[in-house]
Amino acid sequence: MSSSRVVSRPVLLTAALALALPLAACGGDKSSDSTDEPKADAASAAFAKKSGPDIVEAAAAAMKKTGAVHLSGNMIQDGERLDIDLKADGDGLCEGELSTKDGGTATFVSAKDASYLKADDKFWEKNAGANAEQTQKFLDGKWAKLPASEQFSTLCGLGSNLFASEEDLDDENFEVGKLTELDGHPVVELISADGKEKYRMFVRADEPHQILKFVSETPGDPGEIAFDFEEKIAIEVPGADESVSLR
């Protein structure tokens, strides 16, 4: 076994998980909402008149049934803006790109039996330190194949697992906002404020009652994630000739 392999495996795994771990918190830089005046039918208007807890319960149920989803947005990690773009096929595969201004860009593919990581020079310089050049030479432009990651799996299931449990719903105080329109769908705005934490959700007023946007307005932890639900997403897992196994 080469010395490069001994050094690179823990460096790569640590770097990959360092990016994946903070994301489920949904924090990031605030951006503007592109909502318009609603064009809602009677059923949507009636849904928007429900109580906050009832709307959130319907949204949580709809999100748990999501299949393929594309989510994108930005958040704060260690005081730095982190941009994320992720696609999940609903069958256990997902791929995404994570980038920061000073930390570079990393692309990953998460499968049931393995995770794959590929990144630019800036990413390796920040996350691998003195081992950056050695790691890049060892990979030689290929994907790093790592053990399946629970952190990546959690990130990839963010759409269906936005609410961890029923207790999360019971503990929240939701205020029903305006009925507006977003991405061609009537949406009802929900506002949750708990001390210094504040966030808004835009829930489809028509069926299915999915969350189309999640906005955090918490001081020091602002940001947003937008959800786009698709019928089918094709994700390609890197082959043996495209990756270097670090198991």
Short description:
This protein has helices at 3-20, 42-47, 52-64, 121-127, 132-139, 150-156, 166-170, and strands at 68-77, 80-88, 94-100, 104-110, 114-119, 143-147, 174-182, 185-194, 197-204, 211-218, 221-230, 243-245.
Structure, described:
The protein is of the alpha+beta class and 247 residues long. The protein has a single domain (3-236), classed as outer membrane lipoprotein receptor (LolB), chain A (Clam). Helices cover 26% and strands 37% of the residues. The chain has seven helices and twelve strands. The model is unreliable at 1-32 (pLDDT under 50).
Shape: elongated
* Mean pLDDT across residues: 79
Task: Give the structural class.
Answer: alpha+beta
> Percent of residues in beta strands?
35-45%
CATH class group: Mainly Beta
Largest sheet: 12 strands, mixed
CATH-assigned fold name? outer membrane lipoprotein receptor (LolB), chain A
Number of β-strand runs: 12
Tally the helices. 7
Distance between the termini: 12 Å
Q: Percent helix among the residues?
A: 25-40%
CATH architecture: Clam
> What value does the Rg take, in angstroms?
20 Å
Side-by-side strand order of the widest sheet: 7-8-9-10-11-1-2-3-4-5-6-12
Whole-number total of structural domains: 1
SSE topology string: HHHEEEEEHHEHHEEEEEE
Low-confidence stretches are 1-32
